[in-house]
Amino acid sequence: MDIQLKRGLLDACVLAAIKNEDSYGYRIIKDMKPYLEMSESTLYTILKRLEAGNMLTVRSVEHEGRLRKYYHITREGLRRIEEFKEDWKEINAIYNFITREETGNE
Amino acid sequence: MDIQLKRGLLDACVLAAIKNEDSYGYRIIKDMKPYLEMSESTLYTILKRLEAGNMLTVRSVEHEGRLRKYYHITREGLRRIEEFKEDWKEINAIYNFITREETGNE
DNA sequence: CGTAATATATCGTAATACGAAGTATATAAT
DNA sequence: ATTATATACTTCGTATTACGATATATTACG
Lengths: 106, 106
Description:
Oligomer: homodimer
Largest sheet of chain A: 3 strands, antiparallel
Largest interface: A-B, 39 and 39 residues
């Protein structure tokens, strides 16, 4: 899959992964794997970006000797998902432009 | 509109703009404007990239004292559009993941 | 004892979209 | 006559960003 095509989906996808239940990095990657694969370095970069943008909050938890950072979506984060849905209408229009079959001359 | 979201569409969009008829930079921008706005610097970067990737060929034409470079899509370019269509199936699956309404607990 | 799974962090890099600015001609407006 | 707008392509620098590679640390499995 074309990397560029994935780009716009990543942030919204991560937010969607924590939308219904708080989650942590390692699990987010596993949950998204059937839909969208991403490397760890990419995920943690995104999580930091989303935190900086107040899309989510972080809470550290000690779990079996290991550190776990649980991410919780904020109202801003939920709004980001809605924004994504809005944008998608435009995206579909572009998609139709790309895939349209012209009856013109070639 | 989110820039990242546009990224994956740009190459395919430019190819679509010359698919049915050879065209040149200035006109491509105008043709795409209703669907997708892009700056000149972006377009010409993309055209060069597509040329380097053998997705299109270029032909210079003198038109009313001004230079025009006509772009013609190649078989490779047409295949790129088909590839885009294939990718879109996956994109739709991701879109559904992002927008699904879980019946679970929040 | 080594490998895999769990879990997060950091560094350097390559790709790339964009704004800004430049070059040049023709036409319309003031 | 001069200014602005439309046409048409080019180059430079920059910020964003996804990724591979690598590091750290614990637990479980063989």
